[in-house]
Amino acid sequence: MTALVSPVVPETIPSATPYLQMRGITKAFGTLLANDHVDLTVRDREIHAVVGENGAGKTTLMNILYGLIHPDSGEIVIDGSPVRIRGPRDAIAVGIGMVHQHFQLVPVMTVAENVVLGQEPGGIVVDRRAAVRQVGELSERFGLVVDPTARVETLPVGVQQRVELLKILYRGSRLLVFDEPTAVLTPQETDELFEILRGLVAGGKTVILITHKLNEVMAISERVTVLRQGRNAGELETAKTSPAEIARAMVGREVLLRVERDEAHIGEERLRLDGLKANSDRQLPALDGIDLTIRSGEIVGIAGVSGNGQLELAEVIAGLRPVTDGHVFLGGEDVAHQTTAERRVHGLAYIPEDRQARGLVLPFDVKDNLILGSQSRPPFAQRGQRNSDAVDERAKELIQRYDIRPPDPEAPAQSLSGGNQQKVVVARELAENPKVLVAAEPARGLDVGATEFIHRQLIEQRDHGLAILLISSELDEIFSLSDSIAVIYRGHIVEVVPSAAADRERIGLLMAGGTIEGGTPSASQVAQAAAALANEPPGTPPVESAHQ
Amino acid sequence: MDIVNTFATILARPDLWAGTLRFAAPLTLAALGGVISERSGVVNIAMEGMMLVGAFFAVLVGAATHDIVLATLASVLCGGLIATFHGVASIHLRANQIVSGMAINLFALGLTSFLMFRFYATSGTPSDIPALPDVNIPVINSIPFVGAVIGDLNSIVWVSILAVPVTWWFLFRTRIGLRIRAVGEHPRAADTLGVSVFRMRYLCVILSGLFSGLGGAYLALSVAHSFSDNMTSGAGFIALAAMIFGKWHPVGAFLACLLFGFGQSLGINLQGTGFPDQLVAATPYVLTVVALAGFVGRAVAPAADGVPYEVGE
Amino acid sequence: MRMLAAGITPVLAVVLAIIVGGIVVLASGSNPITAYESMLVGAVGSPFDISETFISSIPLILAAYAVSFAFRSGLFNIGAEGQLYMGAIAATWVATTLSDWPGLPLIIVCIVAAMAAGGAWAGIAGWLKAKTGAHEVITTMMLSYVAIDISHWLLEAGPMTPANAFGTPESGPIPPQAAFPVILPSWILPNARLNASLFLTILAGLVFAWILWRTPLGYEIRAVGLNAKAAAYGGINVARRLVIAMVIAGAFAGLAGMVPVWVQMRLYDSFSPGYGYEAIAVALVGKNSAIGIFLAGLLYGAMIHGAVAMQANANISGFLVQILQALVLFFVGAEVLIRWFLRRGGFRALAEAAS
Known about the structure:
The structure holds three protein chains of three kinds.
Chain A (H helix, E strand, L loop, with lengths): L19 E10 L2 E11 L4 E5 L6 H8 L7 E6 L2 E3 L4 H6 L2 E4 L11 H6 L11 H14 L15 H14 L4 E5 L7 H16 L3 E6 L2 H7 L2 E6 L2 E7 L5 H9 L17 E11 L5 E11 L3 E5 L6 H9 L4 E8 L2 E2 L5 H6 L2 E4 L3 H5 L6 H4 L11 E2 L2 E2 L1 H14 L16 H14 L4 E5 L7 H16 L3 E6 L2 H7 L2 E6 L2 E7 L5 H8 L11 H13 L6 H5 L2
Parallel strand pairs in A: 3-8, 3-9, 6-7, 7-8, 13-20, 13-21, 16-19, 19-20
Antiparallel strand pairs in A: 1-2, 1-4, 4-5, 9-10, 11-12, 11-14, 14-15, 17-18, 21-22
Helix pairs in contact in A: 14-15
Chain B lengths: L1 H10 L2 H26 L7 H19 L2 H25 L4 H24 L13 E3 L1 H4 L4 H5 L1 E3 H18 L2 H11 L1 H6 L4 H27 L11 H11 L4 H21 L6 H5 L1 H14 L17
Antiparallel strand pairs in B: 1-2
Helix pairs in contact in B: 2-8, 2-11, 2-12, 2-13, 3-4, 3-5, 3-11, 3-12, 4-5, 4-11, 8-9, 9-11, 12-13, 13-15
Chain C lengths: L1 H26 L4 H13 L2 H26 L7 H18 L5 H30 L3 H21 L13 E4 L23 H18 L1 H11 L1 H6 L4 H27 L1 E3 L6 H11 L4 H25 L5 H14 L1 H10 L3 H6 L2
Antiparallel strand pairs in C: 1-2
């Protein structure tokens, strides 16, 4: 697919009136001012980055631009004339298209159906042949390889993103908004996406890129608008700024861009996976013989593109997914066929990848969430009854130690911010002095402050001898926390390297399924790996694909 | 041996099979309405109430006008009207859709019985109400067995059968059907493409009311030729079960309705044979449970079924 | 404030329902004041009527506990009616079979039988849900119809039909020593039928709340109901909890089935006017709490009993009650509407708290 997009460097075309202006946008949710007189100016045919921490108001601003949220005040001007955007229909009509962070795709429908939805070819009856043809043509024209007749749920995320892009191109949008588009991509896929973006700009489109990754801002944007706590915090020319300056504007103070950690003091073996196999939800092999050892005092990071078995790995270790073959040794004992509850007693803790869907019972109050997993054991249960005093005491202690806000044990978990929700999960998982911690995406969706806090906790626990298996789709997180890095690809651990010796490019290539035999990979290898990744659905049986 | 003979005789009766189609017809109409509503993401357990309202107003308007078209129209429109309440509650007021559905069932039972007492307390409903016409098919009529089964069915039975492919075509081939399914699976995705979630859902909920209303009209103007308190006696709930049993698909729902219709018909045909017909009456329900547990497996509802949509969430 | 907020919606829903119901009465050409007055007098106008109101309420309350307990585990038990039938059948069968037993042991065995039968019947649906994922809305409803058909068979042509039945579908009499003691002796209130099942109902409410809020089992059931994925992650055996929740729910329903039989002292074919279905409304109006359900059940029971007098005295269909019950339920469901009314009325804080 890379071949189809020529790497065009966009020419900067100076233009008298900016293409898009948002002026004095204000939006309050209850007492929270999500946008407070925010201005945004985007020039024609530029790639404009909008950056800020979680909760800075980026997504609100973009949802206002797309008509999903109505501002309390402020105006939107396109090509010099003010426009009213009352809903997505209006936004589409004035040429705005959006690739949402959480893909807005109907999983059970085909690519073509998703693309044409709302503007279907045909009369009363949808002309499905025309839909497939038009989507096919479009994907060819823009170099976005995808099968129009495939069901979206069978496609890997990278390809789903292309479907999102096709949706807005089908509608002839001129202004393309991308909300955190690289969160789900490998470094190689990210590079490809950037190529595509440059190609689109060369072809006359304008791009707004919402992100919190500073290296991406530096790599692709021409100008940057920084938001902080719902207000403008700077508008910078990328060429004349630095990551440190942007970060300062984002956070409002100097930030350390890396985590401080001492050398690991590695002790005895705590968790050993031996030939571990398991199936995905669709009953296809997802783990194909995982061998991995984690010892006391070390953090082992699992690097991989989402959908290569990480999720299944965490669940299998936690006892939430049946083992089809192999062993899980926890402190020397094979727990492969024990229940989750039994494994917890044996010292296993697990920070799940999705705190809202799995880590918390959201309507429960904080104190009840703080005992989840220990609810039926003393001191919280005694003679078949709940010991409320012990529950209260535990809540008080943990709320104080982890500075959970508001410090109200009876507040429902759903009323807490994302960072505080994650603190509840982390506090609970560490409270029973576990021997092994599986931490999946521990900082997902958290702002810089909360991320720092969670990372510090993990490092601290490691220094106290905890064995930690870290699963993250953020390569930065893997690199900054891990003592060694294991790369997972299609249910295999393809390599384990000490993080000090790990090379980013190489890890990225391994994540994409590339093999390296002496020397650096060739460009065609990268392309092949990426294409292979693009065409295989997640959870494709690794065993079968090996014969292809 | 006796039992086998009894059953063989009954299975050879055209009445059994004609009865199956007759009993299945109102269930099919209500279940198809349910499929449409739930495909758009609105849980509808109010088919029972909508049928009851349809049945009552069919009789009321039929008695007043002696016009079968007006009577049928009234029942369909009243079904649609009461469905609109469910729509407002579940779509605009974001009420719990099961609560709203139960409320509508109770309300329909209360209202129709209340009005029944008000208008026909002493005499019962008049006997001179118009009837829905039967369809006499000349050629088929003369074929043995087949003629006796389908040669002389009520027009609404044919409507219910025809409604199955039409509903399928509507949901899976038309532009609006594509949008309906998108709204039921992922309303946000549809909304971001300018498809109005509210409009689709209102349309579907009201359509389900029209279908159920017609089912009620059939019960009142053909099967019973009268109205009595709570005369639907659970048909709407059976239709609900058929919809889930049929995995939210028009054809599946229809097959499930046929099964229930067969059970009812079999129970009636077994009367007087010395067989405990009360237990036979239970067989379709037992079969449903067994089938559901055994080979139908986990039924998957539309992903956004029952979840109110909030703009700008 | 929290208690007040929890109660405000149902109370306002009742007020709104009375207003809208009044409009319906007015539109049909009758006087709503007369209607409500006769209903109120009919429900609580005399000690005897109060006793009868309780009799109407008790099966509703118990069956609502059955709906609600399952609901707390995330299951929609739409088939309390069938569980109630099984409870009634089992208790009657035990009582008529062991008719020579002395009173207290017989009562206890009957209660145990009712609860076990109801629990087992509901447990089937729970087990099928846990094992195969069969949708409980269908299985409980289907099993309801099956239970009712079984009772028809037993009473019309089956082993429970007494020899001298004269074609009436009914069981033999419950032996008198098995009866619940009447609460008010006849020298205080002649003919009052309210019996000790009221204390059983109160006890059931306490057990309901105790299990849910004071035991690890209750914690686990609620966790499963609110987020099954998180529950499994917390080491809870979700399948087993679902089955247990349904069995406990069914036990409440089984008890609910025994009570009306023990008032009439005989199992009649149609002893339940749909308690199991109305219980769904009671559970929802009572917001799935023990005390809320008790109060909602009393309200619904009072309306049912008051309707009899209203229809006789004011010549207005007793089915007005169903309309009122439906409206209460509708307004409880459409809380947004209530909050809007509160805000319009200037009770902003209350409106926020009610959300």
